[in-house]
Each structure stands twice: as C-alpha cells, then as structure tokens.
Amino acid sequence: MIHRTALVDPTAQLGTDVSVGPYSIIGPHVTVGDRGAIAGHAIIERNARIGSGVTIGHGTVIGSDPQDLKYRGEETWVEIGDGTIIREYCTVNRGSTATGKTTVGARCFLMTYVHVAHDCVVGNDVIIANAVQMAGHVTVDDRAIISGVVPIHQFVRIGTYAFVGGASRVNQDVPPYTKAAGNPVHLYGLNSVGLQRAGFSPETKLALKRAYRLVFNSDLTVSQGIARARIELPHVAEVETFLRFIEASQRGVMV
C-alpha cells in the first residue's frame, strides 16, 4: 500500500489499510489512522495527528511551519479528525506557540487550494470550497459552509450553520445560522436553505428569524436587541447560541 518511491520517516505511525502514493513524504512524528489515503506528491511534514479514513489529495502539504514571524521552531502540531477529505494542493500549517496546534475536525471537506493557517480551529462537518484562504487564529464552527475564493481575516469566527457566499472578503465575525456575501460583506438574513436541509423545526426557525430581526433589522441597538430577544422570545437553545455568539464577538459582527 506504500508506493516504492514514497518516503516514510521511521517515527511515523501508519494504521492498517493506509495507502501512500508515489513521491509522497511522511515526516517525523506523524500518525495516520486506519484506512487513510494519501495521494501522490503529498507531504505531511511533521507533528501531525491524522484520524481514520482521512483522504489527502495530490500535492497537499500538511504540518509545515506556521507562517508567523514570532515562530522560533517550537514543537507545535496539526490534528485532523476522522473521515475528513482534503483535496489537491491544500496547505494546513502547524500551530504557533499561542495555542500549540491547528485543528480540522471530523467529516470536513476541504476543496482544492484551501489554506488553513496556524492556530485555526475548524469544527466538524464543515465544507470549505476552492481557494479559501484562512489567516491565523480563524475559528469555523460545526457545519458552516464557506464558498470559493473567500479570504478570511485573522481571528475571525464563523458560526455554526453559517453560509458565506463566494468571493466575499470576511473581516468580521459571521453569526451562526446566517448567510453573508459580498465585498464588502453583509448579512442577508438566516441561512434558510441550510436550516431546512438540517431539519430544524419550524418553531426554531421562527424564533431565530425573530431574534435576527430584533438584533439587526430594528431601531434597537445590538445590545438592546439581544436584551429584548431574551425577554420576548421563547427559550430556544439555538437562539441563545445566536445571541451569545454576538455578545462574545471580539472583532464585531457584520451587519
């Protein structure tokens, strides 16, 4: 299962049924779980923990040094969850000393030319389309979808079930359950299609819609809208997730 031209460091640990394509390099302190598939010319440079059933595409580079001028060669890591697919020519850098690791969750799909920078945290079941470029310390919560050719500013957070349209320049946080698009980027209501496909109940979708209107489409300030939503709306976990995300935003949320 390991091509004769591939190079595997003696400290690397490969699970059962792992295939390694021609001219690939697996460096020191790399772990690859069972049923992994590493295509030709891929490089897993070092210090990477890769789960079971992960597919890594042709020419992809994982575990390279963080592109951070403060980095001085400290030991840092990359972690990739089970069942994730990483297509051709993606790059996933190791973390910096700020957090020690870069994380991509389980069952994610990273399309061609995606860049995941140091200290990023990508949740589970995330879809990131072609040529998305993530700066350092970006957080993408579970089940978010990011369309192609999107640059994301450092320290930005994209909430769960959010949808970002193609070629949007994301320089502020995108609240959960919403859709954002444009350059400059703006919010365009709830991610209704995503919520429907995910099977959210009509009551939950209605509560989220009312919360969105109070916070973003009313004469109230954001803080007033959040307070009013907590008073007027029924207690719904998704609404509280939406409100807490906005309250906790460090870069501010787009409108």
Write the layout of secondary structure elements.
Elements: E1 7-8, E2 13-14, E3 19-20, E4 25-26, E5 30-32, E6 37-38, E7 43-44, E8 48-50, E9 55-56, E10 61-64, E11 77-80, E12 85-86, E13 91-93, E14 101-104, E15 109-110, E16 115-116, E17 121-122, E18 127-128, E19 133-134, E20 139-140, E21 145-146, E22 151-152, E23 157-158, E24 163-164, E25 178-181, E26 186-190, H1 192-197, H2 202-216, H3 222-232, H4 237-248
Parallel strand pairs: 1-4, 2-5, 3-6, 4-7, 5-8, 6-9, 7-10, 8-11, 9-12, 10-13, 11-14, 12-15, 13-16, 14-17, 15-18, 16-19, 17-20, 18-21, 19-22, 20-23, 21-24, 24-25
Antiparallel strand pairs: 25-26
Helix pairs in contact: 2-3, 2-4
Question: Would you give an account of this structure?
Answer:
With 255 residues, the chain is an alpha/beta fold. It folds into 2 domains: 7-140, Hexapeptide repeat proteins (UDP N-Acetylglucosamine Acyltransferase, domain 1); 195-248, Udp N-acetylglucosamine O-acyltransferase, Domain 2, CATH 1.20.1180. The chain is 17% helix and 26% strand. A hairpin with a 4-residue loop joins strand 25 (178-181) and strand 26 (186-190). The chain is elongated. The mean pLDDT is 98.
